[in-house]
Amino acid sequence: MSGRTPSFIVVGLVIIMFLLGLFYMSCSSKNTELRQSLEQFEERIRSLTIKNSDAEKKLENIISRKRELDEEKLAIQRQMEKKDSEINDLNTKLNEKLAELQSLKTDKNVLDEQLKEYKSIRETLGSKDSFIEKLEQQINDEKKSHNDELNRLKQEQETLKNSQSSRNNQLPAQNEQQNTFLIPQQRFRPLLPNNVTTRSLAALLQDPLNKLNNLTHEVNAQIAPAALDLRDKALNVLGVDKKTSTTTISNEQQQDVNNDKLHQQANQNVPPPPLANHAQEQEQQQQPDHVESVRVAPQPSNIANEEIENPFQQLL
């Protein structure tokens, strides 16, 4: 029995070997699993590193893109600031242009009103010019008629002067005959009495003058207010001082008064004509109220021209 090993030791060794085999198998299986997991993990790490590198590249690209975008943003901001400044300048210019446009509109409205006033003034001036032309035509017609009448009266006056001079030449012979015998006065009187002829001649000379004076006063009374109104409107539009207009008006009135005085003085200072004989002188002394002297009146054409042209030249 000394040479033989006990059986329980062999059994124990077999069991131990079996356990070691199981342990080895479990350890090898775990090792393989761990190796597989390690390989998987390494593969994952590789894939993750690859992904990380790709992500880093993308990140670098994104960062570079961001920098580019930031630079573009700054450039765009600068451009926007420039555009804002340009927009502000354009807005200021636009406001200025709008203000100018508004002022031009107001000026246009004012000019339209002035144009309407000028048109109305022009129409009134046209009507007044036509009225003045009509009056001038009437005055010219009156001048022609009065000139014809004046020439006729001058011819009659010349004939009367010639007949009176012939009578004055016959006075000495008549005075000698009166010393011998008395001759009735009615025999040597003219066909028309001297006082009658002188009265009719003076009346004929005075009537056209009165007509012309009345016509000129009517023309001045009708045209002067309208012309003064038009001139005041024109002066107000042009900005001329009204003192000059008042001085011209006073000068016109003073000139009219002076013209009237000159006509009166000219009519009063004309001497009467000489009488035909001594008997007519006695009749004139006995009847001084019924005899009117022949007045050498100024030509009505010159008076009418002076009275009409002066106020028209001053007004127009």
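The record above closes out task 2.4. Task 2.5 opens with a second protein, given below.
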Amino acid sequence: MNTKTKVPQALKAKVMLWTDVSYHDMEEIDKMHSIPDLESALCSAFKVDLLEPKRGVLLELYVQAVLFCRECNFIKEQTSVLLSIIKSIHEANIETPLDNIEQCFKYCKDLLLCHSVRRPPFSINLFSSEEVNCILKYIHNSYVRHYKLYKYIFTPQVKLDLSLTYSGISDQDEPTMEDSSAPDFENEIKKETKAAPKTDSKASIEEPQGASLGSKSELKALIEKEVREQMTLVSGQLDQRMKDIADQHNSAQDSPQPNHKAKK
């Protein structure tokens, strides 16, 4: 089992016409009207070989994309490209269990730009600026808003194991402390033996040991308290960062998109 966690990286957009869904696949998809038939055709086109619930979630994502394309009256080429774009964004999202929503959203916009400006062979003019805005809004509402759920289903969980090491305190400190104070204890024992029973001498020996153990436990408790406060602070900062990103995405769908004109 691979225990390494992949770090999110920037992705490069490219033309995806007929990359995953061929013209023949689109002809078969256009013939299907019921949801089960659409799922069967898309499962064959994308060669989906996953167990539940991953299989059902992925096919539902593709089926909803096809229904959206039909509502927008997209042609076969546009539907094929949009399915490949959604597939690529999904694969980029589940590539790592770490947060990479910024990279995924930028990758999405780069892919749409790559299919809305005529600049062969780097990009093609397949979508108009109005269609790009409509697609971007759809992807944001249907996938980006729920990217955590997709990541939770399709990626392994990452657990953080925290271990504490107390510097300056070791098991060898206690015997050293006892040895250095041994002569004083012997003198006290001799004095106490003349004036009191042996039980009193034992109590006098155990008293400094209990004090040293108490100071050690207090130090450990203090360090653990500092660590907990630091973890709480970092967790709060991460939560605030995720909230800021979500607010940016919510405002992105309302912001006007620039018109893309073909270069001559």
